Amino acid sequence: MFEHILARSQELIALYGLNAVAAVLILLIGRWIAHFVRKLIHNVMHRTKVDPTLISFVASLSYVAMIAFVILAALGKLGIQTTSFIAVLGAAGLAVGLALQGSLSNFAAGVLMIVFKPFKVGDFIEAGGTSGTVEKIEIFTTILKSPDNKTIIVPNSKVGGGNIINYSAEPTRLVDIQVAFNYKDDIEKIETLLRQILDGDERILKTPAPAIGIAQFTETSVKIALRPWVKTEDYAAVTGYILRKVKELFDSKELLFPLEDQPVFLARQGL
């Protein structure tokens, strides 16, 4: 009896011992390969100047996927049926995907923004129904800082799902201001006075040259457009300067007022 048990034990050890050793080797070698591939992905993406947030996420996701594959391979070597595990993982993945549909949409939009870079940290943008300076671009959200210093957290699906206006993308911007004058005013005199206003600010670029001309006729007034080019960082300050100087021009009584002795301004300033 004892000899039978010993013989049976030897058979089991011979049968499963080798499989156990092979499973351990699969785990060790697989883990080493997963580490190597993660490092390789990290280095390749770093050399191609991919955003660090995306590098970390993709490398970690690849590592987890490879480790899961290695574990299933090791279990299969031990004789454990992995078909049911794969089915359970698939069902769980589908359930999680449906539950996190909104988050996955934000993730996909975040990856696209990180890869294609429609804006960068420090840019002033209008997107997702709001506007502000970009503070941080994350996988699921974009964080903005409003002009009145509020923190705005916008889901990436909202940012990437509509128009994105990047006011900081170009080094220069066009200031577009319209001022309404009386029909009886001398147009030539008006343009001369307005040009003096533009010539009085060194922040206004000489090339391209500022444009001044009639923009529109209404029933009660003539609208004159002032369109100088400025550096992007000077946009708000120059716009305020021009509006103040035009107000001073009306206060000087050199011109007639279009409506009930009150000046009319229309500034298409953007943000």
Question: What this model shows, in words?
Answer:
- This protein is of the alpha+beta class and 271 residues long.
- The chain is 52% helix and 20% strand.
- It contains 7 helices and 11 strands.
- It has helices at 2-47, 52-77, 83-99, 101-116, 156-160, 187-199, 235-251; strands at residues 124-127, 130-137, 141-145, 151-155, 165-166, 172-174, 176-181, 211-217, 222-227, 229-231, 264-268.
- The strands form 3 sheets. The protein has a 5-stranded antiparallel sheet.
- A hairpin with a 3-residue loop joins strand 2 and strand 3 (141-145).
- The longest helix is centred in the first third of the chain and has 46 residues, at 2-47.
- The chain is rod-shaped.
- The termini are far apart.
| CATH class term of the largest domain | Mainly Alpha
Radius of gyration: 34 Å
- Describe the main β-sheet briefly: 5 strands, antiparallel
Strand order of the largest sheet: 4-3-2-1-5
CATH architecture name of the largest domain:
Orthogonal Bundle
Query: How many angstroms separate the termini?
Result: 92 Å
The ordered H/E elements are HHHHEEEEHEEEHEEEHE
Helix proportion range: 40-55%
Strand content: 15-25%
Determine the structural class based on helices, strands and strand pairing. Answer: alpha+beta
**Mean pLDDT score, rounded?**
79
Number of domains: 3
CATH topology of the largest domain: Helix Hairpins
- Count of helical stretches: 7
* Unreliable sequence segments: 257-271
